[in-house]
Task: structure prediction
Amino acid sequence: MKHAGARVSASDDAAKHSRRLLDLIREEASSRGGLLPFDRFMELALYAPGLGYYVAGTHKLGPEGDFVTAPELSPLFGRCIAEQCREVLEALEGGDVLEFGAGSGALAAEVLTALATTSALPHSYLILELSPELRERQHRLIAERVPHLASRVRWLDRLPEGFRGCVLANEVLDAMPVHRFRVGADGKPRELFVEPAPEGLEEIAAAPVSPGLPEAVHGLQDKGLAIDPGFESELNLRLAPWIRSLAEVVEQGLVLLIDYGYPRHEYYRSDRRGGTLTCHYRHRAHFDPYLHPGLQDITAHVDFTAIAEAGSCAGLRLAGYTTQAHFLIGCGLDRLLTRAATDPNALDLTLGAKQLVLPSAMGERFKVIGLNKGLDRPWSGFSFRDLRERLDQG
Result:
């Protein structure tokens, strides 16, 4: 969960780090004739080796970082996710869990603990993590919280082959680099680029150069979306290839993607004319992606209709789509709260649960989509209320 607020200045050392990344970005822009597509800027800002936000050594999660995610807010989140994993593993009579971007490791530790109590442990808990700093935090946290289960955890540098089990990606897709566009006065799309400026970086709209961008915008416009002059938004052109790669390695299982976002018709509605791009720095949100390159998170909301379509094209079947609140309730959140009534931390658990499910917090803002492969059965997470009709595919 990410909180809004005013800007915060960076320390001297952090500012030097940011300037080194800024120099790299300016050099690449110059090598491309002065204009850098926004998705490449975002990729460098987040993932440039040794300098990008997610791969440098800055503390990202928790009170000392820039944001807090659901697994850190409450252990009940992980226990509910574990219940969905348990169903998948039982349906397959075994298998693994694969988590993308495991953050602090809190979700992995809680899922393993919960699965152990129901004698439904996976053969392996696999973590695909790009950040060296986060990978080290995950090692430490898992060793501290579940030392007896740590041997089941393996870190990967690439997708595994022949995967059977449950795939988890919590707040991963929002950090995938996106293209940005603006609708011109003539109704045609312009691509938003980054160019060097005397004081840093500037944004400029020009004729699209990124393959697939004009066609994707025209596809929206054919549906009556993104048609007003001046309308700006994002397109994740990397999403479909990512899902296709995942589908190629999953033999049987359920893919669970949890993030903040909208169905397509809500994402590109006319009153959301500035898009969804948001930056997070020390628990404050703002809308200037060029303010602290390398020191701040840059995110965009997820188009869940695009996920469903990409999954279908890749041979995955839609298992369900719902809000985080409905998903957690379907996975037994009420039952877990009742059991926790005598827990010494019962009050904290209740307060954390409220943050997970209240509409004013994470409950409605975050959505869960499931994609099946080789399994055709209902899942508890989508049993309370399945909202797939809102995805307006077609």
Q: What stands out?
A: The radius of gyration is 21 Å. Residues 12-31 form the longest helix (20 residues). Residues 329 and 384 are 7 Å apart (CA to CA).
